[in-house]
Structures are given as structure tokens and as C-alpha cells.
Protein 1
Amino acid sequence: MNQAARSVVLHGLVIALLVAMFFVLPEYHSGNLARILVLAVFAMGYNVLFGYTGLLSLGHALFFASGMYGLGLSIQFLSASPMLAIVIGLITAVVVSGVIGFLALRTTGVAFMIVTLMFAQAGFLTVLFFGKYTRGDEGFVIQRAQRILFGVDLSQPLPRYFAALILFAICLCLIAWMVHSRFGKTLVAIRENEERARMLGYDIQRHKLMAVIISGTMSGAAGAAYALLFGYAGASFAAVQYSILPLLYVLLGGAGTTIGPLIGTVFMFYLIDISSEYTDAYLLIAGLALILLTLFAPHGIAGILRKKLAWLP
Amino acid sequence: MSIISTHGLSKHYSGLRAVNNVDFDLPDGQVRALIGPNGAGKTTFVGMLSGRIKSSAGSVSFLNTDVTDMPAHKRMSMGMAYTFQITSVFANLSVHENVALAARRAIKGAPSVVNNKVMSVLEQVYLADRTDQIAGDLSYGHQRLLEIGMGLAQSPRLFILDEPTQGLSASEVDGFIELVRVLSKDTTILLIEHNMDVVMRTAHYITVLNFGEILAEGTPAEIRSDTDVQTAYLGTT
């Protein structure tokens, strides 16, 4: 089997497995899985920039929140239909990531981390500043009646799960395709040796900007989906914690792999879920897991799998 | 016709004149060697030709276009290729992918077209039996050859090689000389080189830089007999 056929089979199997999961898992866990799928989309978006392009952003909460508030506020104040609100959420994410990318890519390395972090903090403070509309930390609920897309009530477990899965599947296919495209291979070249890639004649800045926009838009799509499927938008999703989480998901699952973000999100989600039953210091356990991982499996779970199966995309 | 030329090209680093007022002209089809003692400004000079280093004054013209303010990647896509003085390959990627990255930028064709180009290039640089090896695992000499292959895959009009034989074994150097002879049929070559044997055996014409200025230019025979060059660089044996 060639690389492309393997990729189709692998990703097809992952999606088929996720379809089956809904019917196999008890309701509590399938509900979790819907949330995980949306967060995995966020992680996949993050992975485009971090895993494939080698740019470490600490500001992806801003992109997530752009999609979330683009959708949420347009439903709340413009009475937009869910479809229109999704489009507005995506456009918001495209614009925000385009502007942030244009500005932040003037820096590299640590400075890039700091600049993205600061932009995201500015975004968070903006959400608080306009508390009259955003309701700040408290957030606002998107009513059930406003979450009916094409006649399907997204507040119900089954439609909600499959809406999340459809979004996830679209993003997974896009990334699987990107990895094999010229564009994706060029991103990897930039990650591996930027100066060499430049001296082969590639426009590094343009590729990086495209990567930020794709990454930011995918993260924004996750934010919009989160608000729509779970009916809530709040400032905590714009806080620094939501910039760190996708980094953790990707590190745990395996940076620069197509299925790593999903694996990482599942593990981190349940690690926090289970450990929070026993202790309030659940973030300590998450942190410990991450330290162990960095020490013993720096390429994440999918990275370990790839050692056994070199063809893993 | 000249492939590349400079007029008054200079690079000053806060008072230090690394390259000063260089007028240089490289005709189509020539193999030109650029020699000079360490610190003569050779790498800075080709850095300005390729666009890696911004010039302080003067102009660069490539294929009759003023490229002085053009970023490096655009010059490359116009038909330049550049190999680094310190080997620079994609160490974690396969040999095939290294060359494919170079070929893909230059060839806008289907994957099979790119693949054919990659295989023919790897044949040329004696790496055809190592396509799937990770580039970082190659020996130093093979990495140098790989980098030359990455240049070739772009089918450049001008190929700039910065000390390509540094660190190669005697037999690898012979292979390199043979390669330059073959390449020179299709492309113009600018070679920075310390190994005088390589220079004398490959170059049609030589430019000698010293203290950032052109000390002499001429055929290998002329340069060998030039007393200024002998004093500055070759020694007076």
C-alpha cells in the first residue's frame, strides 16, 4: 500500500471508530467525547503551526475565542441564524489570525511566543472590557432555540456528537491532505531548516503567514463549534489556560502527526477528569504527566507509535 | 551575455569594510573561481549576490535585472542556486525528500515529474542507492554531495558553491571535479574554493579577493604567475 492509500485507510478507520463510539459508550462518556472532538479540532489547528511549521504560539486562546465570540455575539445581538453565525465566527478567526500573523511573524523564537501571548492577553482583556456585551467571566448562554441548524437541534446528544464528529472529520481530512501537499511539505522544510528552505527559493514569510491563518481559523472553528454545541461563551475560553491546553494536547499526543492531537486531547481530558475526582490539585497531576512525557517520550504518544510504524502520517 | 554582475558592491560592518566597491562580471557558461585568503570577503560577497546579506552600497544585476533589493528567495526562483559553506541539509528528512523539496520549488509539474528529476539528480551525485536514508545519517562527504544535488534539482542558471570540497576526502574531491565539469555544460558556476588543485582543474577564470577588494582577475595560468596574488595568497614558492 502506498503512502496515500495508507493515509486514507488510517483516517477512515479513526472516523469509523469514532462513529461506533457514540453507540458503544455510556452517555456520560459520549458527551465527553463530543467535547473532546471539538477540543481536538483546536489541537489540530494548533498542530499546523507548532507541529508542522515549528512555530510555538502561546496565544491560540485568542483564535479560539475569536470563533467563539464571532459566533456567539452575532447570535446574541444580530439574531443571526446558526449558519450565518458560523460563517461570521470563521471570518472573525481568519481576520484575527491574519492580522496577528502579519504582526507576530516579524519576530521569531522566544519573541514570537511572547508576542502571541501578549496579543492573546490583550484579547482576553478586551473581552472583559466589553463586559456589557460579552458578560465577561460570567459569559452568556446561547439558547436552545438559537442552536437549531438545518432543523437539527444541536443541544441534543446525538446531533451534537455527530456535528462535532463532522467538523473533526473535515479538519482531519484537510490536514491529512495538507501533509501530502506541496504546501505541507514546505512547512515541514521550514520547521526543519528555515534558512535552507529560504535558499531553495521558498517564500518563508508567506508560508508562515498561511500557516498561522490555517491554524488560527481551525482553532476559531473549534471555538465557534464549542459555543454552538454547548451553548455557552465566556471569557475563561480567552484566558491563557486555553493557549496552554492545545500545546499540552499536541505535546502529549505527538506534534507533527495527524492523529496525535486527538490522542493527546483524549488522554489529557480524561487525566484531568479522573484526577479531579480525587484531588483539587488535578493540574499538578497533569503537569507531572507532562514532565514525565517530555523526559521519556518527547515525541508524544503518536511519536512512539511512529517508531514502530514508520509510515504513520 | 553576463549572468550576474555587480557595480560598486560594498558591505561595511560598522567601519570594517568586508567588501569594498567590487565591480564583478560573470559571463554565461563560465566556471569562475573566487579565491582569496581567509577574511577576504568571499562569503560576504556571494552572500550579497544571493541576497542572504544586504549590501551597504552598489548594485547587483542578475539575468539583466536589477536584483539589489530583491529578497533571496526571489533570486533563487529566478534561477540561482546556493550551497552553504557549512553543510545545510534537512537532517531529519530522507535524501529523496531533501532533493524533492528543491525540485518541487523549481518544477511546477506532477509528482511523477518531480520524482524523475529527483532520481536523475541523485544518480548524478552518486546517491541513487541511498534515497530512503535520513540525510542526517549520511557521512559528511555524502551530505556535501546531497547539498549539491539540491542545487542541481533546481536546474539553476547560476550555481554558487561556497567551499564545496571542504572536508572531502581525496577521492571525493576527484568526484567533485568530474561533477563540476559535467555541470558546466549546462550552467554557470561560481565557486568559492580554497583547494588550489580544484581551482586550477575546474575554473575557466579566477577572481582573487583580498581585503574586500578585487586584487586580480585572469585565467588560471595568469593568476598563477601574478606576483601580487602570489604575495597575498599563494605563497612565493
Note: The beta strands of chain A are 140-141, 148-149, 152-153, 232-233.
Protein 2
Amino acid sequence: MNPSIWITLLNIFGVLIAAVLLAALLTWGERRLLGFWQDRPGPNRVGPFGLFQVVADMIKLFFKEDFVPRFADIPVFVLAPTIVMASMLLGFAVIPVSPMVGVIDLNVGLLFFLAMSSMAVYSVILGGYASNNKYALLGGLRAAAQTVSYEVFMGISLMGVVMLAGSFNLREIVVAQQGGWFVLPQFAGFLIFLVAGIAESHRLPFDLPEAEHELTAGFHTEYSGMKFGMFFVGEYLSVILVSSLITTLFLGGWLGPWLPPAVWFALKTGLLVALFVLLRAALPRPRYDQLMHFGWKVMLPLSLANLLLTGGVLLWLQQ
Amino acid sequence: MGTISFYLTATVAILSTAMVIFNRNAVHALLYLVVSLLAVAVIFYQYGAPFAAALEVIVYAGAIMVLMVFVIMILNQGAAAVEQESRWLQPRSWTGPAILSAVLLVQLVVLLGSDGAITAGTPGTIGPREVGIALFSQYVLAVELASMLLLAGLVGAFHLARQRHADSGEVEGAD
């Protein structure tokens, strides 16, 4: 067989397996980091530093009763958790890890990511609907409203980067940052995308769809066993995906001195993931109407202003 | 290879669209519609329009359909709605429209087949840049008209949804 096919296959399965393993590992990493910031040990019993806690949790999830409530809409109930896993894993296909590593080099790579993240919304909505449970439905409704509103300026905030790089291709965007990372000229875009990314992966402080103090567990109230596990891993996958996308778009991707490109990419992404965890440890949860107000009345005008300013400055510089 | 995957995707699109019409459960029908839109996006991509494909997924499958699912979720239709739907799907209510649309379908196939329009092949890949240039030069009037229409819709929706106190007529701080 042609050697290039082997390299492609290695790329595909390498990225796939690395993404799933890192997401699983993050379930432990997050609890350890939360423990560190909240001055308590966190899971430290199973294996060195509690590292095998992941394996223990996985065994537990596999052997739990996989309960499907008889009042649920069963086909949709089963379908819902698979959507978030599938769409997030597909999203990793366009991420350029280093000049050599990366699954596809799509000329609309950035739009592909946006499309996949808008597909992931169905997981939460359908999970909430199919459970046929008041709390789950409320969680699903919140998720629908929140993600649709935050998606609007998520796309707009990225257009500044697209204008600077002149491309939707993520590889070309990284190469365009050789003169300087886009986080400096696009600092507003960076902040807006960070907020939108947290909201898209419904992490605290934007986890109103599953707010456990008012909705028991929100959209996944009725889920158990590995179906719950897929929602859980899907959330961590989206955290890693958003972090690696921020690295690619704003922090120069694999660019950096001395170390190999893939190491730079992993370092930057790891720091952003830690920032996600720190935000969860530090921030309280807002009220639902505050969240929507913030999205439509603060972030949307800000991102539009950023777009206008970037376009104006670019036109001025071209003259 | 390209032809096979085209016919495969087209079959998926047609079957799922048929399921949208014949499914009795509204949410299941909407999910089939999402599948149909995704299949259309794949066809766009195969024919060298990746930008249109991405927008199809983001705008239609990802935003508009989410809102439709949202509305149907709130309606909370149960077994009663499914029963009503199956009463409406009696043969005597759909045979007339089905015959009429079959005539249209035959006409469409004959017209397309006679002109050789299908054999034209792909004109190469149309990237985001070309789409943008076309939108803001050749079609700029249509874009502006659409933006005006959307603005009018936005202002109208805001006016209708705005809350007032019944007595003072004062505008409350929204929802």
C-alpha cells in the first residue's frame, strides 16, 4: 500500500484516540485541579496521584444499570448522547496540531468547527425532550436558548481573525500568525470567543442547562450508565476542542521557539484547559435571565463593534 | 466513486424527506428533516461548494431547526397528537395532492433530462472568497433588500414581545 495512506490513517486514529483519552483523563485532572484550588486533596487514592480513578470510574459506569425510563421517547433518548460525542470528535478533524499532524486540511475548516458545535446542541435539547421529565425539559429549553444566542456572536467574534488571515483554513490562519499572535490585535475577539466557548460547552458559570441546585441534573436527569458517561465525556471533549481552537486562532497554534511544534500546541491548549477549570472553581453561577441579557446586550454589540473596527483598520492599512 | 456517493447521499436526502412527511411524531419528523438538510450539505460539498455546505449546516440544520425543535418541545405533544396525525394521514386526504405533485415531478424530470443540464459537471470549487465577492458586487441589491427585511422583522418582533405595565404604559426592563 501507498505509504501516504498509512500516514493519513495514523493521523486519523492518533487524533481520535488522543482526543478520547485526554477527555477521559480530564475527568480526573479537573477534580485534582479543583481540589488544589479549593485547598483539598481531590481523588488521590487509586493508583499514583489517583491517576487510575479514570479507570475506576469507567468500570463503574459500564456496570451500572443502563436504565431507560418507560415514559421516554426511546429512539431519541438513545440517540441524544451519541450526537455530542460524534460531533465533537468530528470537530477535531480540522484542528492542525503541528505542520505534520492533523486529519484534514479543509478550506472552510473554521466553518466546519462552527457547524459541528451547532450540531452538538441537539444532544442536549433532544436529551431534555426525550426524557419526558419536567426538569430535563427545562434544562433542554435553557440549553437551546443559551446555545443559539451564544452561537451568534461566537461566529461573529471569529470573523476578525478570518479578516486578518484572509482565510477560513485553520492551517493558513496559524501560518499567518508568524508575524505575531492574533491575540494582540484581536484581544476583544479572543475574550468574546472564550466566553462563547464556555457557554457552548455549558461549563460553569454557563451551566444553567444542568444547574443541579434547581433542576436536579437538568437535561441528563434521567440518564445513567454509559449514556450519562457519553454526555460527560462529550463535555470534556468540547472543552479540549474549544481550547485547541483558541490556541489555533489566537495563540499561534504550533508556533514557538526551541520546542517541537506539537509540544507548543499541547502546552498552550493545556494552559487554556486549566483556565477553564479555574473559571469553574472561581466563579458563581449567574441567574438565567442575566445570562441571556449578557449575551444579547453586551457580547453581541461588542463583537459587532470589534468586526467593524477590524474591517475599518484593515481598509485603512491597505490604502 | 463520486457518482456512487452522490446517489447514496441523494437517496438519504429523499428517504429522510419522505419520512418528514409520513412520520406521525412531530419531533421525529423534524429530526428526519435535519438528516435531509445534512445530506443536501454533503451534496453541495461534493459539487464544489464547501462554503454553501458549511452554511447549510450552520444556518439551516444548526440554527433554524433548533428553533423549530424548541417550539415543538414547548407544545408538549403526546400520544393524542400522534393519533390526530394518523387520522389526518388517511389515503383520501393525500391521494389528490400526491397525484398533482407526481405530475409536476414527471415534468421536472423530463425537462431536466431533455436539456442535458445534469451532464454539465462541476465548475470547480467555489471558495468563501468567491461567494463573498459575488454577494457584495453582483447581488448587492438583493443582500441589502434582505437585510432591510430582516431589520423590519427584528424591530417588529421587539415591539410585539416588549412588556408594558398595564396602567403606567412604562416599558419594563424586558422579560
Note: The interface with chain B takes residues 73, 75-76, 79, 106-108, 111-112, 114-115, 118-119, 121-122, 125-126, 128-129, 137, 140-141, 144-145, 147-148, 151, 155, 168, 289, 292-293 of chain A (CB under 8 Å).
